[in-house]
Amino acid sequence: MRPSGRALDEMRPVSIETGVTKHAEGSCLIRVGDTHVLCTASIEDRPPPFLKGTGLGWVTAEYGMLPRSTGSRMRREATAGKQGGRTVEIQRLIGRSLRAGVDRVALGERQITVDCDVLQADGGTRCASITGGWVALRLAVNALMKAGDVRTNPLGVPVSAVSCGLYAGQPVLDLDYPEDSEAGVDGNFVMSGERMIEVQMSAEGATFSRTEMETLLGLAEKGVAELSAAQLAAVA
């Protein structure tokens, strides 16, 4: 029934390769099916000005898509002189999601910027960015702990994200682009273990019931459990 032939509750193949860049304190290349995102985490030994003297750290994110990450070439946003609304929305989501899983007191007065660059897009780029972004962030934190700059691990349960939706009237897990573009209902679930961080759900052509929403949440919990296991294996 699904274009890919997957079962309704089946994730695309997930792989996370770490240490893929030379200079970043933490980096990984996450592949979720044909969606590939390069995630890097960079440490600055000072917080943003609004946090100076508070004892709190900060995690922020930036997001972008390469011109040929999609079927036809996109214009670089830098040539337009500003970021598009979609880009701003997604990078704010990534930053909020990752900060929710950080003990900012334990992190101390420093900032970690997580950059998520989409090399190839086939649906779910924001979810892959959050999932891979946590891995890059954890590797950067490991470097701080190894150097003795951070004594207590500020990260707990992995932060993961997955999409779910109603495709051809059926609840499905981890939408790829053909499904995402035709879904009657589209949702993104950001979770830390069994705890929810953010849920984005919208009717894209069909309304949904509370029962259907709970079904999609159940699928999301299954997907997040699989993603969390992949994240922990990558940083082990």
Structure description:
The protein is of the alpha+beta class. Helix content is 32%, strand content 30%. The chain has a five-stranded mixed beta sheet. Strands 7-6-8-9 form a four-stranded antiparallel beta sheet, sandwiched between helices. Strand 8 and strand 9 form a beta hairpin. The mean pLDDT is 97.
Write the layout of secondary structure elements.
Blueprint: E1 14-18, E2 26-32, E3 35-44, E4 58-65, H1 77-80, H2 85-99, H3 104-107, E5 111-120, H4 125-146, E6 159-167, E7 170-173, H5 177-180, E8 185-192, E9 195-203, H6 210-235
Parallel strand pairs: 4-5
Antiparallel strand pairs: 1-2, 2-3, 3-5, 6-7, 6-8, 8-9
Enzyme class: transferase
GO molecular function: 3'-5'-RNA exonuclease activity; tRNA binding; tRNA nucleotidyltransferase activity
InterPro entries: ExoRNase_PH_dom1, ExoRNase_PH_dom2, ExoRNase_PH_dom2_sf, PNPase/RNase_PH_dom_sf, Ribosomal_Su5_D2-typ_SF, RNase_PH, RNase_PH_bac-type, RNase_PH_CS
